[in-house]
Amino acid sequence: MKPIHYGAIAAALGLIALLYFAGNTVAPKKEDKMAAAMSQGGTPGERQAAGMEIPKAASFDSLLAAAKQKLAPAAQAEINRQENTITRGDVTAQQIAAYETLGKLWQQNKNHAVAAYYFAKSGKLENSEKKLNFAAHLLSEELHHERNRSVRQWMAEEAIACYNQLLELNPNNDTTRIELAGVFIDGTGETMKGIEQLLTIVRKDSTNIPANIILGKMAVESGQLDKAVARGNTILRVDKNNVEAYLFLGEAYKRQKETDKAKAMFNEAKRIMNNPDFNKDLDEYMKTF
């Protein structure tokens, strides 16, 4: 058997903490969800679930002006000089190079969101999968840390534009489509658009594991437990040692009041992970039902 990496252990523990150790599985009242979403700013998906309006995206010009104010005078002057080369350059190749240089300058100044904007501009002009992918990943990572709702919305929309162009260049890239789905679900809160991207994958390949894992977990969260079980079983027919499938299958069976099946799934997850801390947490959870 292949060794289990610590990254996989951390991911699985995080999955349990997020989905299954949250305490009461009864849906909270709408006003409770509203308060929770408001208190932390919330992702667009959380705000949408709480019935809150998704904000208008921040303007790049305002973000750029604020970012420049934080720069040292020398860095600001260097960026201003580089910006001037864009307005003077009529040749597309010059603009591609100028945008890429601006991206690198902002990256050096540790503003990854603005850097991503310029890498994306360069990538869009060049139709470069490498640059578009890099920009999309930078923006997606920044989404996890940004709490300002309007800024988050801007990041999500910019990332979506990158992923859409990537799919125009390579429509069969399932990894890109899954990442786009994630931005729709957790970034803009357009859950159904995200699900449609995932369904596009499984219509083509019903055994696609990453898409089925996301759809399976979402089915558990939304109470569509039969669908969750079907997704989990599909995954296990392809990968009998998939920990995430055993975990959401266990939770689905638990919520269906099939306690023996639930514990069997969780015990399989323990066997595969073979990690004392993981096993202890899961044992404690199984004592609750």
From TrEMBL:
One Pfam match: TPR_19
TPR repeat boundaries on the chain: 243-276
Record's keyword terms, sorted: TPR repeat
Iron-sulfur recorded as keyword: no
Top-rank taxon, per record: Bacteria
Name under which the protein is recorded: Tetratricopeptide repeat protein
Annotated source species: Taibaiella chishuiensis
